[in-house]
Design goal:
Layout lengths: L2 H21 L8 E8 L5 E8 L3 H13 L1 H12 L6 E6 L2 H74 L1
Parallel strand pairs: 2-3
Antiparallel strand pairs: 1-2
Helix pairs in contact: 1-3
C-alpha cells in the first residue's frame, strides 16, 4: 500500500466512524465501532471493518442497518474527503476481538490446568512430608517409651541398690 492509499484508508475509517456514530439514526445500528479501513490502490474499493458490542442478534441487526445505510455512508465519505470518485464500500465484521478473547480463554484454561497439576503435586509432597513427620513422631514416641523404660529400669536398679545398702547397714 502506498502512502496515499494509507492516508485515504485512515481518513475513510475516521469519517465512517463519525458518520455511523453521529449521523445515522437507525436503531439497528447499536454500538458499532469502526476498527479499520482498507482501500484498493486505484481508490475504487474500500472495505470498512467494524465491531459490534453485543451478541449474534445485535451483530445481525447492525449488519442489516449498515447495509441499508451503505449509499448514504458512501456519499458522505466522498463529500467529506473531496475525492472525485466515491469508492465502492464493503462492510466486514472485525472478529479480532473475539479471536483475542478465545486465545485468552485458552491461555486461562491452560494456566488453570497447570495450577491444578501443581496443586496435586504439592499435595502429594505435603502428604509424603506429613507421612515422614508422622513416622518421625512415631519413632520419637518409641524412643521416648524406650527411654522411659530404661529410666524406670535404672530407677528400679537404684532403688534395689539403695535397699541392699540399707540392708547391709542394718
Amino acid at each position: 500500500m502506498s502512502r496515499r492509499t494509507e492516508r485515504v484508508a485512515e481518513a475513510i475509517r475516521r469519517e465512517a466512524g463519525l458518520i455511523i456514530s453521529e449521523q445515522l439514526r437507525d436503531p439497528r445500528i447499536g454500538f458499532v465501532t469502526v476498527t479499520k479501513a482498507t482501500i484498493s490502490d486505484d481508490l475504487r474499493n474500500a472495505t470498512i471493518y467494524y465491531s459490534v458490542l453485543g451478541g449474534k442478534k445485535q451483530k445481525d441487526r447492525a449488519r442489516h442497518g449498515l447495509k441499508s445505510a451503505h449509499n448514504y455512508i458512501r456519499g458522505e465519505i466522498s463529500n467529506r474527503l473531496g475525492i472525485r470518485y466515491a469508492p465502492e464500500i464493503f462492510f466486514k465484521e472485525d472478529d479480532t476481538w473475539e479471536k483475542t478473547e478465545e486465545i485468552n480463554r485458552t491461555f486461562k484454561r491452560i494456566e488453570n490446568e497447570r495450577q491444578t497439576e501443581e496443586d496435586e503435586f504439592s499435595e502429594n509432597d505435603e502428604l509424603s512430608e506429613e507421612d515422614e513427620i508422622s513416622k518421625e513422631d512415631e519413632l520419637s514416641d518409641e524412643d521416648e517409651r524406650s527411654d522411659a523404660n530404661e529410666l524406670s529400669e535404672d530407677n528400679q536398679r537404684y532403688e534395689d541398690y539403695e535397699r541392699s545398702d540399707d540392708d547391709e547397714q542394718d
